[in-house]
Amino acid sequence: MFENLSERLSGVFDRLTKQGALSEEDVKTALREVRVALLEADVSLPVAREFVKKVQDQATGQAVTKSITPGQQVVKIVHDTLVDVLRGEQDPGALKIDNPPAPILMVGLQGSGKTTTTGKLAKRLKEKEGKKVLMASLDVYRPAAMDQLAVLGTQIGVDTLPIVPGQKPVDIAKRAKQQATLGGYDVYMLDTAGRLHIDEVLMNEVEQVRNAVDPRETLLVVDGLTGQVAVEVAEEFEAKVGISGVVLTRMDGDGRGGAALSMRAVTGKPIRFVGLGEKMDALETFEPDRIAGRILGMGDIVALVEKAQETMEIEQTERMMKRMVKGQFNMNDLKMQLEQMIQMGGMQGMMGMMPGMGKMAKQVEESGMDDKVLKRQIALIQSMTKRERANPQLLQASRKKRIAAGSGMEVSDLNKLLKMHRQMSDMMKKMGKMGKGKMLKQAMK
Ligand code: GDP
Fold this sequence. Notes:
Elements: H1 2-17, H2 24-40, H3 45-63, H4 70-86, E1 102-107, H5 114-129, E2 133-137, H6 143-156, E3 159-160, H7 169-182, E4 187-191, H8 200-213, E5 217-223, H9 228-240, E6 245-249, H10 257-267, E7 271-275, E8 283-285, H11 288-296, H12 298-325, H13 331-343, H14 346-353, H15 358-367, H16 371-382, H17 386-390, H18 397-406, H19 411-444
Parallel strand pairs: 1-4, 1-5, 2-3, 2-4, 5-6, 6-7
Antiparallel strand pairs: 7-8
The structure holds guanosine-5'-diphosphate.
Guanosine-5'-diphosphate binds next to helix 5.
């Protein structure tokens, strides 16, 4: 079910966001979960395996890039790979119906929504493309099916081939072709008989019809709710009759996204349309983005990832604040501050927001500091060792030279940074001594 997959992935990515950048182990753990989730969503094992491998190849390349949002990075890769696998080469809605009259053969199991889809598609061709369409039912086993198509035809204003009792399917197909030619139709649609299961008789019959009319499109209609079964049906039809595309019905229900994914991967045939209800206009062209989003529960995850990140930032900031007022403001804290400043629209904006920093903000403004400067300062801190970051007072001349050289800057740049750190650190200590109430008052001045 969609829910399971998206929930499961949410959990995985939630855990991912609690950590720093993407490590290979992170990606592996996440992908194990992705695979299980895909299997639960009724994606077949080989397809899930291949899919996960694709994502891994993509992700491993990016694992080195330090990302502020590793969860999003993986979500994006999984999403893009899904879209990639689902997308066919051609525009799914563009049916080959030039050279009138163009035959469209509709095949599938009984109850898959074949007759309904025939009507929906005829309506679409008539209204959206201005085509003159003829529909014919070849279901000689169930007279009710023939009547059903005739009723639909009346409802949507599309002609149906008159019913002649006792005719064989292949003969009805030939009659439809004749009538379509004589009547100047652009398209004639043949709604073949379905069975509960695939059998020889059904396949032979469809083959005969195919040979008689040489269809431009053979669309397989499958019930999207049947998951893996739908994929097996598609494989059979592709092997025996050859199909040009798939219509997934009942995608309005809480269907499994897995069917769509497996279908595409196993048969190599594009999904052309999706059925989204019983009404005659509940048919849409297949959009990989939308299905991928549905499979992933994309919106949810992205929101979740963002929330997790927010919480993480708040926690970090609180911890830093506590240390700062105790006079333990070190280079790691400063680096985090600088990074946040970039995120929050530069130094001025940030300084302006901090209590007691109004004057400094002005200095910053005068000195013309911008993101570039902030990034250079971050680079300086990155050139420091862990110990140096924790204890900036260790920084004597030789260390300073090394750090400046390591980040491609001058010692004077480093001195400026250290001065700034001292000033900030003093300010924090003062504020800490003042206590909360006074700090607020000071901030109001
Ligand atoms: P056929 O035996 O393959 O021709 O199946 P039908 O066209 O008679 O459809 C069987 C049932 O499924 C009917 O009640 C349809 O209204 C319903 N149905 C077909 N397509 C859809 C769909 O996309 N969504 C929903 N919810 N119901 C559908």
